[in-house]
Specification:
single chain, 5 helices, 7 strands
Length: 167
């Protein structure tokens, strides 16, 4: 994988523990501010989620939370909830000062690869005005399935069929 800004440094995601909840919440709030501005909505769930809710997500056995660190700082994270054959990705967040350098792509691909073998498809949602994330997901095979109203905007629901190498 390519490191930040084209550097050859590999990106190595790690599973995050409940002890990372505070830092994860800080990253999430910083990363989703641009999305809130684009949607004129400061009440997006990643911004209103509480520390207790983040801790609960980290403790949920159906959820894995992956993060990428730069030294001791978490600079990117994503959640994967597995229910049967579906892996639902959420809260893909990259620190504002690290966006545009490939961390989101690297983390997305690493999370897909680490999903249990039984996962046959991935699903996620993003806001209709989230131009960067929509491009990212389309570039990696996600296709829009439908839209649903969310306040004054719509959530775009995307899905990708998991492709496994044969051999």
């Amino acid at each position: 994988m390519v490191g930040q800004l084209g550097n050859p440094r590999p990106v190595t995601p790690e599973l995050l523990a409940e002890s990372a909840a505070g830092e994860l919440l800080t990253l999430q709030r910083a990363a989703f501010l641009a999305e809130a501005r684009a949607h004129h909505d400061l009440d997006l769930p990643p911004l209103t989620e509480t520390l207790a809710q983040v801790r609960a997500a980290l403790a949920d056995p159906a959820v894995t939370v992956w993060g990428v660190r730069d030294g001791s700082r978490i600079v990117a994270s994503v959640r994967l909830r597995v229910e049967g054959e579906v892996g639902e990705l959420s809260r893909l967040a990259v620190a504002p000062d690290r966006q545009g350098g490939g961390l989101g792509t690297a983390l997305l691909l690493a999370t897909e690869a680490a999903a249990p073998a039984g996962v046959r498809r991935f699903r996620l949602t993003t806001g209709e005005f989230s131009a960067g994330p929509l491009r990212l997901y389309a570039r990696h095979g996600y296709r829009e399935t439908h839209r649903s109203p969310e306040g004054e905007h719509h959530l775009v629901h995307l899905e990708k069929v998991r492709v496994r190498d044969v051999g």
